[in-house]
Every structure is written in C-alpha cells, then in structure tokens.
UniProtKB/TrEMBL annotation:
Belongs to the phosphofructokinase type A (PFKA) family. The keyword Transferase applies. It is an enzyme of class 2 (transferase). This is 6-phosphofructokinase. Pathway: Carbohydrate degradation; glycolysis; D-glyceraldehyde 3-phosphate and glycerone phosphate from D-glucose: step 3/4. InterPro entries: ATP_PFK, ATP_PFK_prok-type, Phosphofructokinase_dom, PKF_sf. It comes from the Bacteria. Keywords: Cytoplasm, Glycolysis, Kinase, Magnesium, Metal-binding, Transferase. The lineage of its organism: Bacteria, Thermotogati, Thermotogota, Thermotogae, Thermotogales. Its cofactor is Mg(2+). SUPFAM superfamilies: Phosphofructokinase (SSF53784).
C-alpha cells in the first residue's frame, strides 16, 4: 500500500477541507493510505500527523478553513533534511501540498533533495501562474460582493463615498472581480497605475447627477504615488484606501462629500466555501491522488476552464499572475 501525506502551507482558504476530504476518499478507493499532517511542515517536524479515514473527513465539505491547520513555514537548508528524515520515517511516498506560492516554494525546495510532491493550489488571491482558479477564490469574491451589496444601501442613504479595502495584492483578482460583481463605481488595484483624475471626475459626475453616492474598491497595499501622499499629508503607515478617501475629500470639498472606510480583512477568507470552490477542490485533490497511483509526481495540479491540468515543476510556478486584461477593462464600462 502506498502512503501519502497531506498538509497545508500558507494561509487558509475556503474549500481546503473539500480537498482533504476528496484526497482521503479517493485514496481509500485506490488502496492508498492518507496521513493528515497538522500545522504544515512545522507540525510534520513535531510528528503531528495521523492516518485519515472516512469518519475523520465526514461532514467537513461545507466547513471553511482547514481541519489540518496550516503554517507559513517553508523548509530550507538543514530543515529540508529533517523533512526528508520524517518522510522516510513514516514511509510516505508523496506529499500533497495544499496552498499558494509558499506551497510552490516548498515543493521546489523539496524536489531539489528528491522528495516527491504534488501541489494543489489553494489561495483566495488566485494569483498562481499555472491555474485559472485556485481553491478559495470564488468564496472570497462572493464575500466581497456581499459586502458591497450591504454597503450600497447605507452609502445611498447617507450620500457617502464608501471606500472598501480588499486583499489580493499584487494580482488584482479579488478587487477587480469582487468589485465588478458587487457593482463598484470605481476600482483601484495593483493591475494598473491608479488614475486619480479619472476617479474624481467619475464621483463628481455621480454627485452632480442623480446618484449622490459611490462605492470605491481599493486593493490593500496598492502603490499610491508619492505626490498624492504629500498632497494629502499622510504617513507611510496609512492604508491606501484611507489615502484615497482623503484625496477625494480634498478635491471634492465644494460638494460636501463624506467618505467612510471599511477594511474587509479576514472576512474575505472565512466562511463556508462556495459551490465552485468545493467542486474544483474535489476535482483537483482526486486527480492528485490518481497521479500518485500512476507514479506521476513533481507536478502542480490546476484547472483550465473545467478541465484538470498537470504542470511540471519549474521556478516559474511561484510567479504572480495578474488579473486578465479583458476583465480589468470590463470594469470601465460601468464607471
């Protein structure tokens, strides 16, 4: 019987439990034993792992987060040799590494010392170069859309500009797609240089017309030009969304515009996974186990449309993937 180890590296994302469940069920079907490694490679080095059976993964499909826990620890140097010792100690033939770019970095490091693995992409940022979609992205943009729907009513009632800060730097996927789905009136992301003149003009036209409110989505950490920071007299530690708010206040003072700021933060990452995240997680994890059965390792699993893909490891799998140009341009139709 082959034995694989499943662990998470990096931040949690909704749908990871769906992937763990699928790996266990598929493993049992193919006569492959699955060991759940808790708290990533940190837990592995502390012997924090157990064999997973059907009862262990029952009723987790709808749960957010990860039942195995996770950590940001990426093994390097001497730590890689310790991981190799643990792999040999427990008779693990392949590691299934669930996560984003930290998972990819870990897999590349392990490959260099001969530890087989397969990456299952899971990050709400959706910024991995080898897959169209990552586990957790669909839930994250649904959460952003829901937040914008809620803020819409209070923005309209009080005639305010609502600044909504999202995660996702520097790929722009959450801000652009979440903002587009939630009817944002303007989106500022790392995908392109912010145009503050355009922003002010759009808000001005709305207030001079019948729509005296605006929803502006700002990606956390988006680069704000130095001249804008100096003009608004803000510190280096001030969030990008707040700088945008102060700029709006300064340049539209004659209209008496008020603005409010909401940082969605970890609300984007939590909660029960959406249907799409459950489906792609189940597809990719099941396929990863089939690859183990065939002896095919050192590959990342991905999706192109609804088709599963297998991408050989290379240094490029850690690259960022910016939001598609067409989707970015599509948002401008609604400004």
């Amino acid at each position: 019987m082959k034995r694989i180890g499943v662990l998470c590296v990096g931040n949690d994302s909704p749908g990871i439990n769906s992937a763990i469940r699928a790996a266990v069920v598929k493993g049992l079907d193919l006569d492959i034993e699955v060991m759940g490694i808790r708290d990533g490679f940190e837990g592995f080095l502390k012997d924090n792992l157990d064999v997973l059976l059907r009862p262990n993964v029952s009723n987790i499909l709808h749960q957010g987060g990860t039942m195995l826990g996770t950590s940001l620890f990426v093994p390097e140097g001497e730590e890689l040799n310790r991981v190799k010792e643990k792999v040999e100690q427990y008779g693990i033939s392949t590691l299934l590494i669930i996560g984003g770019r930290l998972a990819a970095r870990s897999a590349i490091n392990l490959m260099k010392i001969g530890i087989p693995s397969i990456i299952i992409p899971a990050t709400i940022d959706n910024d991995l170069s080898f897959t169209d979609f990552s586990i957790g992205f669909f839930t994250a943009i649904e959460n952003v859309k829901n937040a914008l729907d809620v803020l819409h009513s209070t923005a309209e009632s009080h005639h305010r500009v609502m600044l909504v800060e999202t995660m996702g730097k520097p790929s722009g996927w959450i801000a652009v797609i979440g903002g587009l789905a939630g009817g944002a009136d303007y989106i500022i992301s790392s995908a392109e240089k912010p145009n503050f003149d355009e922003l002010i003009e759009i808000i001005r036209k709305r207030y001079e017309g019948k729509k005296r409110f605006s929803l502006v989505v700002v990606e956390s950490g988006v680069e704000i030009p130095e001249e804008i920071k100096k003009e608004c007299k803000v510190s280096e530690k001030e969030s990008s969304a707040i700088i945008v708010g102060r700029y709006i206040e300064k340049h539209l003072k004659e209209l008496g515009i008020e603005w409010r700021y909401t940082n969605l933060g970890y609300l984007q990452r939590g909660g029960s996974p959406s249907a799409m995240d459950r489906i792609i997680a189940t597809q990719m994890a099941s396929h990863a186990v089939e690859m183990v059965k065939m002896g095919k390792v050192y590959h990342a699993v991905g999706v192109k449309g609804f088709s599963i893909t297998e991408i050989p490891y290379s240094d490029t799998i850690v690259n960022y993937r910016p939001v598609d140009y067409y989707l970015k341009e599509l948002t401008k139709l609604f400004y």
